[in-house]
Write a structure and sequence with these properties.
It is a single chain. By secondary structure, this protein is α/β, with parallel strands linked by helices. Helices cover 34% and strands 19% of the residues. It has 14 helices and 13 strands. Helix 1 (17-31) crosses helix 14 and helix 9 packs across helix 11 (317-327). The longest helix is centred in the middle third of the chain and has 19 residues, at 221-239. Residues 241-249 have low confidence and may be disordered.
Length: 381
């Protein structure tokens, strides 16, 4: 009997990590029913982060909440409360941007100028109201490029134009931002705030929030330049270069060049202003969910994501899962929607696109092809 740990990330926009793990497990047990299967869905801060914690942490409780969605409509979401520990007697609150202000909530529409992170901030505020001792925030899959102004507004900040009128939500409001009042900004919980992030982009410039991530949110070339200028204006205001100097507030002067400041349309920067710490997402998720302990003694670890490519080695969940497996002496298999990276160091690598015959077929019914992949891996062991 072999011990198999299945720890995939979600296949973004196609199938959740928990469903990926379940399909792979079903395919495996159809061939080798006596093996021990340990399913540990993974995440790196994007969609599926809440589900990964809920699946792996005994006693985790979902707390329902209604927030303002990315373009102003109401969204029913939840945050997750992890059990109390000596270090966090009030428990740890896990809040996910993807389910409160995420791009998937817009369907096929894009709202590059109106979309904001207000709902994400409202969910953070709800967790603070509940008395959590620490916050863990996942910030992937954002719909906006608002520099975190929406979430900071929900936490008590006020951003205004030259006439002391509150700016519009989203990136469009950054055209007019001239002043900021952070005197009512809520304090961080006593255990601090950790931001799970899988990118290292700065806020501004050619590698910044607007240039790199803006096009997928609907910004054209002219829009990218305008949004980047708005983010630069926000930085100036928060530094006190234009508008009123922020004095005596709880916020700190954040460096727009800090790794991760450009994540989630600049939400990373807004959270740095609040005083949060940006940490490698997959690494922290694995630590909090005990993935390393689960992998100890495994014969094989199966991981994967929608697209296994050149970016997968840079902070993505499969790279960290693979590193844990190799450290434990276990073989590693990758299952992905498409594979466009070197897999020579892996025991096996399976592409759903190849199994299904086309990317369209793989996307149309991923669970079926994941079960086939699970069976193929079991037959190869």
């Amino acid at each position: 009997m072999a011990r198999i740990v299945i720890a995939p990330d979600s296949f973004k926009g196609t199938i959740a990590a928990a469903d990926v793990a379940a399909a792979l497990a079903a395919g495996w047990t159809a061939v080798r029913p006596d093996d021990e299967i340990v399913a540990r869905p993974m995440a790196d801060g994007g969609e599926g982060t809440l589900a990964a914690f809920a699946e792996a942490v005994p006693g985790a409780v979902r707390v329902p909440i209604r927030v303002t969605g990315p373009s102003g409509f109401a969204v029913d979401a939840s945050w997750l409360r992890l059990p109390a520990t000596d270090a966090a007697p009030g428990g740890i609150g896990v809040v996910e941007l993807a389910s409160t202000s995420g791009i998937e909530l817009l369907g096929d529409a894009r709202r590059p100028w109106e979309a904001s992170t207000l709902g994400f901030g409202q969910a953070i505020a709800a967790a603070l109201d509940a008395g959590v001792s620490q916050l863990v925030l996942g910030i992937g899959s954002s719909a906006s490029t608002d520099g975190g102004t929406g979430l900071l507004t929900a936490l008590g900040a006020r951003f205004t134009d030259a006439f002391d009128t509150s700016i519009a939500p989203g990136a469009s409001g950054l055209d007019d931002v001239a002043k900021v009042d952070l005197s009512r900004l809520r304090p961080l919980p006593e255990g601090g705030v950790q931001v799970l992030c899988d990118v290292t982009n700065p806020l501004l410039g050619g590698r910044g929030a607007a240039a790199v991530f803006g096009p997928q949110k609907g910004l054209d070339e002219e829009g990218v330049a305008r949004a980047d200028a708005g983010l630069a204006r926000l930085v100036d205001v928060l530094r006190g270069v234009s508008g009123d100097t922020v004095a005596g507030s709880l916020a700190r002067v954040a460096d727009p060049e800090e790794a991760g400041a450009g994540a989630a349309g600049g939400a990373g920067y807004g959270l740095l202003v609040w005083g949060a710490e940006i940490v490698p997402g997959a690494e922290r998720v694995a630590e909090l969910t005990g993935l390393g302990d689960a992998i100890a003694g495994a014969d094989l670890v199966v991981t994967g994501e929608g697209s296994y490519d050149g970016q997968s080695a840079s902070g993505k969940a499969p790279a960290h899962v693979s590193a844990l497996a190799e450290a434990a002496g276990a073989r590693v298999a990758i299952v992905a929607g498409r594979i466009a990276a070197d897999t020579s160091g892996l025991w096996r690598a399976l592409s759903l696109t190849e199994l299904a015959g086309s990317s369209e077929a793989a996307i149309a019914d991923p669970a079926t092809h994941l079960r086939a992949a699970g069976s193929a891996l079991a037959e190869a062991l």
